């Protein structure tokens, strides 16, 4: 079984950009989202994957990922996935020896910027960068599957 341990933070400012790579564009959509799991199709640059992730709230979740042909991913996104699709650019950078991913959302989630760090264990220690703000790992609104049903543009408390 695949396991993902991930901590998620709001981003305070753009100072992270000085150390980031050029970024990779993502488009993803959800075929199924239930109380048990979500099934998503993701195009990441030139790669495409089908991903199954448990719907548990918190920093540790089961995750399975399988490569699929890009043309099939495009077809699934257009014909079968719930709209709106998640559109974002993911930037990678290292801070204090740890890889961080910063997602800058577009489309219906424009204005939302979130940083994630994947860890080997829930109790792993790491330094939080100065540009990382409030931790939102336990706030389901920040899960991509939830951003489809309730996009950032519709949040009434966007500044919190």
TrEMBL record:
This is Adenylate cyclase. It comes from Thiohalomonas denitrificans. PROSITE patterns: CYTH (PS51707). InterPro entries: CYTH-like_dom_sf, CYTH_domain, NeuTTM/CthTTM-like. Residues 2-149 form the CYTH domain. The active site is at 30 (proton acceptor). Gene3D superfamilies: Hypothetical Protein Pfu-838710-001.
